[in-house]
Write a structure and sequence with these properties.
The chain is α/β, with parallel strands linked by helices. It is built from 38 helices and 20 strands.
């Protein structure tokens, strides 16, 4: 039987009342509050110990409002959470200035930085570890303060009563009181604390506690509320205290003392939870004894528990076990979907297994705006795209002075909140695709890190674009300049908390990120978090620290912040919440995921400094108390909700079986017919029609290219299907940066320095007085000396941007003597350098199936041309390869499939004037290795590999080229037939599926 609401008499002590936290709990509570209002003819103040049931209590008060109430109580009773009530304390402006969380972190961190040995004790040598340790120290100091500050409550009350006291003098008196209270408690606590780490904690607490601590402000607020009741006894309203959860012993003592003192001036009702008709397990009914141990249930109590189980809504409880994680998430989503189909509009997903709950949420996103999802589990702000965008900038500015990696740079530039048009002060239409262009350039050149490296890659791309008549990427260089300027500002900043905050805000404004974040829900909340770093004129604004320390602090603060989703109207609402948030709340159905023995019950992380025994001595939260509270929360949930689905994963990651929670197993002993259902996902069967052969025909509406490079022709020879996908359809695989340093950009530099060197050699040969005419040794010495200089000069910028390139330079410098010997030997045979990096090509005439004559241009850039001084008509083409001679030989074995040199030779032979070789024909073509094997003897080093039987190969190549192009222009079927060595790296591999047949 429920207890009737007490009759409020003139007794000067709190009236006690208990309600059963069952399905009618809110109704009972609302009727009791209205009863208080009717008896006192005043509007009561209702304070809830937790904020979760706040809206439910207000709704219940409206629903159960008495008929024709007295005008004095016509308004709803005022309902507040305990924290809001403290914040609304009268004369709060007189309290000592509240320290922000950031200021408290800084105060502890400054002291930790002076004592590195403390960080080493707790394995917190890194910046992130130090900030985490600072947070743990603050939490522990608050626990100590909660044990000590109640000793000075009477002195605080006396201070608050003195309304005329100067606020500064009051703060000094509070400091004195705090010192005295700590001095008294310190001796006793130090006797209980024997380990070295806890002694250090006591020292921190002794010197860091201040009147601005949250614990002290809580007691100031209680004193202020008490003083208001004392001075306005004639009109003091009734106070109703609702204890929705078991308090910590120290909090229970504090509130009991306050309620007793408040009852001297106004009626006070202390409402608790009565578990006799709700408890489903003995611990939920009996609680713990004075020593903190579980009380055993006697036979009468056990009979009561059995009756509660039989009288519950157990027909609506469903047990579901899933074998794998994905099946668990699927079963959770299907359970929620079933409740929605049944017409339930207010559903709770209790996330004991947060990972499975998040996965289920993703599956439920297919319902779209018709289902409103409210996540109350503390969704981290750091997981939003707004925080990820800011983090990409933080990673960029913490890069070394040479510059960020290409991955870091592109990650920042590709974030959706970066406004490139605003940054460059250009119209939006002029900034449509520079980021994609930059990505293509950096990946193609494999420029992996460094501002100078990026500039070199862009400049070379610009030079290439200009030579082909395209528009160069000028805006990319401007963008790099702006970003590098911001980066340098951070590196040169003598950083303290104030100027770091100002510079970050300036960055966000100049790059348009602040404006874009303001338009985003998570972005707005992120900007509010950043504002907490504005310390104003506080004592910590000029605390100096390293950039890495400040960035770690910033990331830690963002990690601690929770994201609050924007509410919206929908046909149904799903609330994702922890078990503790279900207290005194009404739901049509509840799905509880994570009911296995490892996750239910779930305990909070043990404190870094205090053992469970010491927590009991300090009257703080203990493991036993948490266990009892969760048992009561689960009992309340099962008793109050008619539809509850309990799900868990029956197999762990290692494959071991997982049993349901012991609480569920104990219930099943009383409910033997309660089955465990196996969650099985929907399966669908169908007949497959496997692909027999990868083949395609060029669509008549698709235009065929009228120009082809040597690499494109090689793709056609490797596999026509590959050429079709890459060159005709234009489908390219998204390339990535490989591990380590790739020689792509270094290879380009090698080609450039060799061109510059040979041009300098030609100029030097025109000087009659030059030393190179004296002897072969003098010529060798000059060539080696100047080739080394050219190499150092060309590689200088590349090394400045990426120091790893130094190894490539050193490897090349070792090759120089051998390369010079090869060049001298070549010159002795009559060959002389002529020109380099020339764009040459020729036209192929075709007749397409419609009888129309077509011209296809075959064009490429040759590395080098030589002429023979012994013949007025002979010339040679050379292709540099940054490879060993063995790889070059393998390529030469398939010359007709990779006819790069033959293309250059035919281009010169058909149009020598365009190649600046009038009257000459190519009689020699060879690939030259820039990575010869230097371990061999000098006379055995092979550096060049010529094309053999040049005339015959040229004739075969021309016939083959015409045949291939005629097949292409005839739009005949293109089949995938390449060998595995080609398929392994083919961009079209995922399309053609050749490996499947």
């Amino acid at each position: 039987m429920p207890h009737p609401f007490p009759t409020l008499n003139a007794q000067q002590q709190p009236h006690a009342w208990a309600i059963a936290p069952n399905a009618s709990a809110l109704k009972s509570l609302a009727e009791g509050i209205w009863n208080c209002a009717v008896q006192t003819k005043q509007r009561p103040l209702v304070v809830l110990s937790t904020a979760g049931p706040l809206m439910g209590v207000r709704a219940a008060l409206e629903k159960y409002r008495p008929q024709d109430p007295d005008p004095q109580i016509a308004f709803l009773p005022q309902v507040m959470s305990f924290s809001d009530w403290l914040e609304a304390a009268p004369s709060a402006w007189k309290f000592p200035k509240k320290q922000t969380d950031l200021e408290r972190w800084l105060s502890v961190y400054i002291n930790l930085r002076k004592h590195k040995i403390v960080q080493s004790w707790f394995k917190a040598e890194s910046e992130a570890g130090a900030w985490g340790l600072a947070q743990a120290v603050i939490d522990a100091c608050d626990s100590l303060s909660e044990a000590v500050v109640p000793l000075m409550q009477s002195e605080i009350n006396a201070l608050v009563q003195n309304q005329t006291l100067d606020s500064e003098l009051w703060v000094k008196q509070v400091e004195t009181l705090l010192d005295q209270a700590i001095a008294k408690a310190y001796v006793g606590l130090s006797r209980k604390v024997v380990d070295q780490e806890s002694n250090v904690l006591l020292a921190f607490w002794r010197f860091l506690s201040s009147p601005g601590d949250p614990v002290l402000r809580k007691h100031f607020a209680l004193a202020a509320h008490l003083q208001t009741a004392r001075t306005n006894q004639a009109v003091a309203r009734p106070l109703i205290w609702v204890e929705t959860a078991d308090p910590k012993p120290i909090d229970q003592e504090m509130m009991s003392r306050y309620l007793h003192e408040h009852s001297q001036f106004a009626p006070v009702v202390n409402i608790g939870m009565g578990w006799h008709s709700v408890a489903l397990w003995s611990e939920a009914l009996t609680g713990q004894d004075a020593e903190g141990e579980l009380k055993p249930a006697d036979s009468e109590q056990q009979s009561l528990i059995d009756r509660n189980i039989q009288a519950s809504f157990h027909d609506g409880w469903k047990l579901l076990a899933a074998r794998r994680f994905e099946e668990l998430a699927w079963a959770t989503a299907k359970s929620i979907e079933a409740h929605l189909i049944a017409g339930k509009t207010n559903i709770a997903l209790v996330a004991q297994d947060r990972l499975a709950a998040r996965r289920a949420r993703a599956l439920l996103s297919r319902f779209g705006p018709s289902l409103r999802i409210r996540d109350e589990t503390g969704w981290k702000l750091s997981t939003t795209r707004a925080a990820a965008s800011l983090n990409s900038w933080l990673e960029l500015i913490r890069s070394p002075k040479e510059g960020p990696s290409a991955s870091t740079l592109l990650e920042f530039l590709q974030n959706p909140f970066f406004d490139i048009a605003h940054t460059l002060q250009k119209p939006s239409e002029a900034c449509l695709s520079p980021i994609a262009q930059l990505e293509d350039i950096l990946i193609a050149s494999q420029a992996k890190s460094g501002w100078d490296t990026f500039r070199i890659a862009i400049e070379r791309a610009n030079a290439y674009s200009s030579s082909r008549g395209s528009v160069p990427y000028e805006s990319l260089l401007e963008l790099l300049t702006v970003l590098q300027r911001h980066h340098v500002q951070w590196l040169e900043l003598k950083l303290d908390c104030e100027n770091a905050y100002l510079l970050l805000q300036s960055n966000l404004q100049e790059m348009g990120m602040a404006q874009q974040l303001e338009k985003d829900s998570a972005g707005k909340q992120l900007l509010e978090v950043l504002k907490t770093f504005d310390l104003g004129e506080g004592a910590y604004r000029q605390v100096a620290m390293r950039l890495s320390e400040w960035l770690s602090l910033l990331k830690t603060v963002i990690e601690e912040a929770s994201y609050q989703e924007v509410g919206q109207q929908a046909q149904a609402t799903l609330s994702i919440l922890p078990l503790s948030s279900t207290r005194l709340r009404e739901f049509d159905a509840v799905v509880l995921v994570g009911c296995d023995e490892q996750q239910l019950p779930a305990f909070s992380e043990p404190p870094l400094f205090f053992s469970d025994t010491l927590n009991r001595l300090l009257k703080a939260s203990t493991i036993t108390a948490q266990y009892i509270q969760q048992a009561r929360d689960l009992s309340q949930l099962l008793i109050s909700c008619p539809q509850v689905d309990l799900l868990w994963q029956s197999k762990s990651k290692s494959g071991e079986p997982l049993r349901p929670s012991a609480w569920i197993s104990r219930l099943r002993t009383q409910l033997p017919d309660w089955p465990i259902l196996e969650a099985k996902p929907d399966t669908h069967s169908s007949l497959s029609d496997p692909l027999q052969e990868a083949v395609t025909t060029v669509n008549p509406d698709i235009a065929l290219p009228i120009s082809m490079s040597p690499s494109a022709y090689k793709a056609l020879r490797d596999c026509p299907y590959r050429y079709y996908v890459r060159s005709i359809l234009g489908l390219r695989r998204a390339k990535e940066f490989e591990e380590g340093f790739d020689a792509s950009l270094a290879g380009q530099v090698l080609h450039a320095l060799l061109k510059n060197f040979f041009q300098a050699l030609k100029t030097e040969e025109q000087k009659t007085y030059s030393s190179i005419h004296r002897s072969e040794d003098a010529r060798r010495e000059w060539m080696q000396e100047h080739l080394i200089k050219h190499s150092e000069k060309e590689f200088e910028r590349l090394i400045k941007g990426d120091a790893r390139v130094t190894g490539t330079l050193r490897d090349w410098q070792k090759q120089i003597p051998s390369f010079v010997d090869w060049q001298l030997k070549r010159e002795a045979e009559g060959w002389q350098y002529h020109d380099a990096e020339l764009l040459v090509g020729f036209m192929v005439m075709l007749i397409d199936p419609d009888g129309v004559q077509r011209e296809v241009e075959i064009v490429g850039r040759a590395d080098r041309f030589d002429v023979n001084t012994n013949s007025s008509s002979a010339a040679a083409v050379i292709d540099y390869k940054n490879q060993g001679i063995n790889k070059i030989k393998k390529r030469a074995d398939h010359l007709l499939n990779d006819p790069q040199l033959l293309i250059y030779a035919r281009a010169v032979n058909e149009n020598a004037i365009a190649a600046h070789l009038p009257g000459r024909t190519i009689e020699q073509a060879e690939r030259v290795s820039l990575k010869a094997d230097l371990k061999k003897a000098d006379d055995k080093i092979v550096r060049a590999y010529p094309v053999e039987q040049m005339p015959e190969m040229m004739e075969q190549f021309s016939e083959q080229l015409n045949a291939d192009l005629e097949v292409l222009w005839a739009r005949k079927p293109m089949k995938a037939f390449a060998p595995d060595s080609v398929c392994q790296y083919c961009e079209a591999r995922g399309i053609c599926r050749k490996g499947m047949w």
